[in-house]
Write a structure and sequence with these properties.
The complex is a heterotrimer.
Chain A (H helix, E strand, L loop, with lengths): L3 H47 L1 H5 L3 H8 L3 E5 L5 E2 L1 H8 L13 H6 L7 E8 L2 E11 L4 E8 L6 E8 L9 H4 L2 H4 L17 E3 L10 E3 L5 H24 L1
Parallel strand pairs in A: 7-8
Antiparallel strand pairs in A: 1-2, 1-3, 3-4, 4-5, 5-6
Helix pairs in contact in A: 1-3
Chain B lengths: L14 H8 L15 H6 L4 H24 L9 H23 L1 H13 L4 H9 L6 H31 L1 E2 L8 E2 L33 H18 L8
Antiparallel strand pairs in B: 1-2
Chain C lengths: L1 H12 L10 H6 L4 H30 L13 H23 L1 H7 L10 H12 L4 H29 L11 H16 L9
Helix pairs in contact in C: 1-7, 3-4, 3-6, 3-7, 4-5, 6-7
Classes of the chains: A alpha+beta, B mainly alpha, C mainly alpha.
């Protein structure tokens, strides 16, 4: 048996050593992590506009170069826009410039809806504009999120990309792994013929091909698909005022 | 399960040391004999590539956690040994995580949840409790590596079966590309109705939805145990 | 009422073992007889029921940016949760060793391994990501523990009976336990559609 004092000293030294090693490694690798993460997020945005395969073929440098042509805006639910200085002040960013891509949507989701800031990316393709909105919700196990690219009419979906934290591989994870799922949204409309907002439904058991407001669900992944439906409805609605002002 | 401490001096790679490495592959396999690490065997075995990365990570964590614990074995107060072991394991797992994050970010993103699961993978802590606390560092290290390999072997067997029959592919999602083995091509896999597509050998095959459910790995492990015990009669459970 | 529904949901609809396949190792290894299964089941109920509220308090008052440190310390969540669980298990181990040495011996290595029973850490992480209130976290912890307890009793009962059946020798014991669990899991999948409103 060891004395109580020995136990405390041992645990203290042990934890300090581990903490120092990990903190050192973290500081050393942090620049690489941040660069990797930035490129990863840029890819996700680009995928919603250009498609997964085309973006996967680009090198990291090409992704960064491509992203320079994108106008980044930060908006709230009233459609007010914020410049980088305001974002930086509002979110206490120290080493980030306060662009749309710097926002951590996981943290924004926890705030009251009226206090949230959301990114809005505008691609200008020879005068034809594409708006990319960011949505975030919950799947079966954990968070799911995605980027929805809307055409210049702010109604027709031209592309989507989804990701998740821990959905079941082969079931819920198919929203990301299966290339046909994001593609099935292309051409769907978020407004009905009267111009009212209706969002797009992920329908269990399959959707009618002519239905402009529904896509096929993934069999066996009902909770994840319901999560996507909820995320789209709430997330896209959030952008309504901002899109209306553009 | 508790091994007794080995006293006599042995060469670096004597018979006993080799046994430490090879035993966990068959007669003392962590999954099928010691019943350790089942949860992660269910979670990461839908894709072979994930199972492969997971195995490499577990071999690393298992080996070095055993080495460090064994070096400290006379200093660790028994009242707090679990917390100490977990700090060691969690530290090593974080090292794996940080390295992967810097080396290959997309793979890290895909696997970050599962890498975290290594902390609660009972193989690591099970071997620390059963072996490393009572044995010399070199042997503990070999025991850790051996058990990591034994775990990886089972993991990859399950993953290959589940991926081929559940998705029709092999090594999907890996940086080396994937092979379409049977059934539908990747473009349509397991999405609504699996329509047979070109590009695979047996395109008439419809992917088996059961294989993507966690329950299927229970059946596969059951069958692996059956096969293993049919030829290794010593393991048969008489009770 | 909400807490009761959550208890039922955690115990049956989202059973840790049979719906999520968490906490498998000790479940399979200690389910040979009902007696040991009962002991371990009680230990798991206790550990889950205690760690869940403690981890809730830690997460709310230590780790979140509205807590006493006033900064976001969530990256420490994993290690702190595990530390709480480990100390609780160590406590349980000491108590069992003192009061029931026979149970202590029959549980063997699987008593300390409750620490790495993924059902317990998994439960705490679910609680955080689902943003339960304090009362609900207690109900969820007790419910998950109770569900785990029921599952291990059920498989132990089946395994005690199946011993008298003519199973191929190589499949006896563990092999059969895996297959039965797979079947039970598929049966429990049908409960997943029940909506208790929580």
């Amino acid at each position: 048996m060891h004395s109580t004092r020995y136990i405390y000293t041992f645990v203290l030294i042990m934890t300090t050593v581990v903490a120092v090693v990990l903190a050192g490694m973290n500081t050393f690798l942090k620049p690489i992590h941040q660069a990797n993460e930035a490129v990863f997020n840029k890819r996700a945005v680009l995928k919603s506009v250009k498609g997964t395969a085309a973006v996967d073929a680009l090198s990291d440098e090409e992704v960064v170069a491509e992203f320079k042509n994108v106008t980044q805006m930060v908006v709230n639910m009233n459609g007010d826009t914020f410049n980088p200085e305001q974002v930086k002040a509002a979110r206490n960013f120290k080493d980030k410039p306060g662009m749309a891509e710097d926002l951590d949507l996981a943290k924004e989701k926890k705030k009251d809806e009226k206090d949230r800031l959301h990114p809005l990316y505008v691609f200008d393709n020879g005068g034809k504009k594409t708006y990319v909105t960011a949505v975030r919700g919950s799947g079966l196990w954990d968070e799911i999120w995605g980027y929805i690219a809307l055409d210049a009419d702010k109604n027709t979906i031209v592309g989507t990309s989804f990701d998740h934290k821990g959905e079941t591989p082969g079931l819920g994870a198919e929203i990301k792994d299966n290339p046909t799922f994001p593609l099935s949204f292309v051409g769907k409309k978020i407004r009905n013929t009267k111009g009212e907002f209706v969002s797009v439904l992920v329908k269990k058991g399959g959707a009618d091909k002519t239905n402009l407001h529904a896509v096929d669900g993934i069999s066996g992944a009902t909770v994840t698909c319901d999560g996507v439906t909820e995320m789209l409805e709430r997330g896209l609605k959030y952008y309504e005022p901002a899109l209306a002002k553009k | 399960m508790a091994e007794t401490a080995v006293q006599e001096k042995e060469p670096l790679f004597g018979k006993k040391e080799r046994k430490l490495l090879t035993d966990p592959l068959d007669s003392n396999n962590p999954v099928t004999v010691q019943v350790l690490g089942i949860c992660s065997a269910l979670a990461v075995t839908t894709l072979t590539f994930k199972a492969l990365v997971m195995s490499v990570a577990v071999v690393f964590v298992c080996g070095f956690a055993a080495l460090i614990t064994s070096l400290l074995r006379n200093m660790i107060p028994s009242q707090v040994r679990m917390i100490v072991q977990l700090v060691i394991i969690a530290g090593l797992v974080t090292i794996v995580e940080l390295s992967l994050k810097a080396l290959n970010y997309p793979v890290y993103k895909d696997l970050s949840v599962f890498i975290g699961l290594i902390i609660t993978n009972c193989i690591v802590m099970g071997r620390l409790e059963a072996f490393s606390l009572a044995n010399k560092p070199w042997r503990s290290f070999l025991d850790g590596i051996g058990n990591g390999l034994g775990y990886g072997l089972i993991l990859i067997i399950i993953a290959v079966i589940r991926e081929i029959f559940g998705k029709g592919t092999l090594m999907a999602g890996s940086p080396f590309g994937q092979f379409n083995i049977i059934g539908a091509s990747n473009e349509t896999m397991s999405y609504m109705i699996n329509t047979a597509a070109e590009g695979s050998w047996f395109s008439w095959y419809t992917n088996n939805g059961l294989m993507v459910l966690p329950a299927s790995s229970m059946f596969i492990i059951g069958i692996i145990i059956w096969v293993q015990r049919s030829w290794n009669k010593e393991l048969v459970d008489i009770s | 009422m909400e807490a009761l529904n959550l208890f039922l949901k955690a115990a049956f609809v989202e059973n840790m073992v049979l719906a999520y396949f968490l906490g498998m190792c000790s479940y399979l290894a200690v389910s040979k007889t009902i007696k040991t299964a009962f002991g371990l089941g009680l230990a798991v109920i206790f550990v889950l029921g205690i760690t869940m509220p403690i981890n809730w308090l830690i997460n709310e008052y230590l780790l979140s940016d509205t807590g006493i440190f006033g900064m976001d310390l969530t990256f420490l969540r994993f290690i702190l949760f595990i530390a709480v669980i480990a100390s609780m298990v160590q406590l349980v181990e000491m108590v069992i060793e003192k009061f029931s040495p026979s149970l202590y011996n029959s549980l063997g290595i699987f008593l300390p391994l409750i620490t790495v029973n993924c059902a317990i850490l998994g439960g705490s992480l679910f609680m955080v990501s689902r943003e339960y209130s304090f009362g609900n976290s207690v109900a969820f912890g007790m419910g998950s523990g109770f569900g785990w307890f029921l599952a291990i009793i059920a498989i132990a009962a089946i395994r005690e009976k199946i011993r008298y059946s003519n199973v191929p020798p190589a499949l006896r014991g563990l092999g059969m336990a895996f297959i039965i669990t797979g079947l039970m899991g598929m049966a429990f999948m049908s409960l997943m559609g029940i909506d208790l409103g929580v």
